[in-house]
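Input:
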Amino acid sequence: MRVIRTVAVNVFRESVRDRVPYNLVAFAVLLMAASYILGQLTAGQDVKIIKDLGLAATSIFGLFIAIFIGIGLVSKEVERRSVYALLAKPLSRSQFILGKYLGLALTLTVNVAVMTVALYAVLAYMGWVQTPAMKAAAELPAVDPALLKAVLLITIELMVVTALALFFSTFSTPLLSAALTLGIYIAGRFNADLRHLDAIVNARPVVWLARAAYHVLPDFAAFDVKTEVVHGLPVPAGYLAATAGNGVLYIAALVAAATLIFSRRDFK
Amino acid sequence: MPAAIRTDALTKDYAVGFWRKRPYRALDALTLEVPAGEVFGFLGPNGAGKTTTLKLLMQLIFPTAGRAEILGRPAGDVATRRRIGYLPENPYFYDYLTAEELLQYFGRLFGYDAAERRRRIGALLDRVGIASERRLQLRKFSKGMLQRVGIAQALLNDPEVVFLDEPMSGLDPIGRRDVRALILELRDQGRTVFFSSHILADAEALCGRVAVVAAGRLAAAGRLSDLHAFQARGWELVVAGLTPEVIARLGAAAGRATEISPGRYTLELSLSQPPERLLPELTAAGGTLVSLNPLRDSLEDFFMQRVAAVGRGARGDTPGSGA
Amino acid sequence: MTAAPARLPLAGLALAALAGAILLQAVRDLRYPRNEALRAGVLYVRSPEAMRRLTFGFQALAADVYWVRALQHYGGDRLDARAGAAGPRYQLLYPLLDIATTLDPYFNIAYRFGAIFLGEPSPGGPGRPDQAVALLRKGIAAMPQKWEYYHDVGFVYYWRLRDYQAAGHWFQRAAEQPGAPNWLPSLAASMLTRSNDRATARFMWQQLLKSEQAWIRTSAERSLLQIEALDQLDQLEAALRRVGAQGGGYAWSSLIARGLLRGVPLDPAGVPYELEPSTGRVHVGPQSPLWPMPDETVHPR
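Output:
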């Protein structure tokens, strides 16, 4: 709807004015410097390393943006009270939340897209510079469309983290929101280990708790298929669909909960 | 004509204390009616519940009990927001936007197309006097300029009812004069203006009716002229060009005289000493009138009385629509 | 009122979406199981020292994580083996255990697990007794008075490497440590003198049966069953030799006919033994849980 789109575009504009794009520049510089240095050192392994580096950096930069902008999405407006004048306009509180979320999602998507293009550009250059012997020795092409599978899941993973940050931002301070979001992200990354906690801990209640947490928390490690695409291992379409769907459902749950909390809030 | 704004036993409690046991009653059963087309002053000392009432009307907070209506619809109705404007107290907008971009943002929320937005924004920026700063980022705006932007965004949609929370705060005398003129203009255009203030002089100059709150309760409501305590209890004249002998000769007629500087005096007259009678004598004695002001109870004094009255259970002037 | 959306449908949506997410996650994990250990490490950091520096402050926690990964890796590859998948397995078991014990040098379980399973031949393990000994030496360096580690080294030399002199030596050193059980000296002695004794092996495994660790007990049970099978193999082969080959060769029917067997004989795990008709040799079937049997040289003639 028009109103949601207006709010979303405003969030995007704020992130641009807040110098978020500078991180894209940092990323591009990092990637190009790394590729140059590696080109001087190793023969053949540099393409793989650049792929690893590019994907990892996309994920990490994206994570920082998702958390640090996400925690302030709502709380900043409420704290500074710019929300007063805004909510006197004809938009409902749920439209506000949705707009904020979609705006940050848009920012992240643009970010990831730019970084992916930069990565492919660097890979294309490296592929162009490769000797035929190196090309033959490499198992995978430098410009490998399979990387996009990893990028897709990275994007969805970032959207889930954003939804988490938004959720916390509707009722707690930025500092606490950041801690909680980061904590859940880390727990989610080690999700599989929670399942096997009985290998190191003997107390049954703790093990049961860990197992419950394993089921409820999103398994962020599942979104990480960087290793597979870089090594040419298969990533089935069914897996992509299920994981993407899993992410979308978590997002829906978190945004709905955020709307619920925000819609009944008193603004001091 | 139906009331523009109506509240019915509107109450707001806040839970305070670590265990949230003792609620703090910020607003206690406020019942008010504001007729359309008037300038209505919502007065009270700081902390009396004025901002709480406005936030309840804008549904920034939710009532513990009671109801509020704007233009016949419940407060918080999204459709009604097309017809109202709101200026928050000490407004803050978005640092990184320019004045023009802010109004564009809000204009889009109202659904105006580009041409419409341009027309409205241009007119408003001129009207509030910040046309030359339209491209400046809001983070560079002074408090007074922000207030003007606030008024502009409140009027963007040609509202029938305008809510202003302390509209004069942070303005210099020129700014205050401008805002006063603007409020009168809004009234002349047939809009309802509901503004809160703790400055009596503003209310006097602008309002048809007022309501007075103190400690979360309604202490008085009605036409200014009907509220006794707002009437003068005396006069204060500042005169120049007199000598101590003249003062001595005037005697009791001059009331209580205090010298400000050689030749310049302040004369305090009681209600029974109309200044019109004194003026010819002063002029004859060679004096000139510098200023003439009614002496009143300060708003604080008035409130102290009303609060005490409210506290004793007496209700004084009846709340609700004045005669 | 209005700007505030209805609470109940929204809460319902949130819960339904969460339930859906949990369900989808479970279904996906069933359909596409992932082996965490293998992925996480296409181990970037192979060097335990580097790992130690990277996880400064959180070493014990990291050690735990690596231990869990080691177990998952072992379990996962074990399942693959049972399913008949081909290829080298358990590649990461030693590196994972090595890192875990570098991060936490007192990680007792890791040492003992490695002692038993690193030496285990395929398909039950990587068949690397040298790795087992290396790991245990590390443990001894960290905890020089733990008799269990010396004992475990001796065990590896005896059971996997068939170096009876070395085994006896290590058992002797174990016996010298404080708290060593009183059966160790006699074990050392029999190792050094006869060294080739099924009874000794049985005795050693029976001691391990008393361990606190469940998987050590399981291993001991299995090994004891294997020793029982060895006894049965002896008896079966002896009986077959006595009866002699018939026209087509040796056959169970000859024993059944004479009432020596009631049917095809089963090993202690319940799987039928296999008979080579031409030679009269009997083996434990490859699909038996007891397979592969310990080396034939332990099987005296």
